[in-house]
Amino acid sequence: LKQVFNKDKTFRPKRKFEPGTQRFELHKRAQASLNSGVDLKAAVQLPSGEDQNDWVAVHVVDFFNRINLIYGTICEFCTERSCPVMSGGPKYEYRWQDDLKYKKPTALPAPQYMNLLMDWIEVQINNEDIFPTSVGKCKEEVL
């Protein structure tokens, strides 16, 4: 279990919303609606009077946190030896390109691909220009 929660591995701590902020309240509302067994379409519908960019940002961060937790539980079973290719079944192979270290699409073992992907997503979520922590300050062209 220590390996799953090792920050140097794939598990990352949840990005949290500051209590007392509007984003925190939106997060609580989203959690309550998702946990109440209501219709998913209604659960993700923009609440009246709320900013669409803030609502989307809350759900993006929550989705990342959930995927991160799920991946943290299975990552020990997918090693570079057992998962030498990042694929979506026999027909699809995913290749990594970031224009920094990997200038062209590069085949990588699944764990390495996932580590790069989760790191990249975390950088995007923590980028104040994309996901500002001040409510109502999202740049519409980015989302």
UniProtKB/TrEMBL annotation:
Q: By what name is this protein known?
A: MOB3B kinase
Q: Where does Zn(2+) bind?
A: 78, 83
- InterPro entries given in the database record: MOB_kinase_act_fam, MOB_kinase_act_sf
SUPFAM superfamilies for this protein = Mob1/phocein
Q: Which residues cross the membrane?
A: none
Q: Which Pfam families match?
A: Mob1_phocein (PF03637)
Provenance organism: Melospiza melodia
Recorded GO terms, molecular function?
Answer: kinase activity
Which keywords fit this entry according to its UniProt record?
Kinase, Metal-binding, Transferase, Zinc
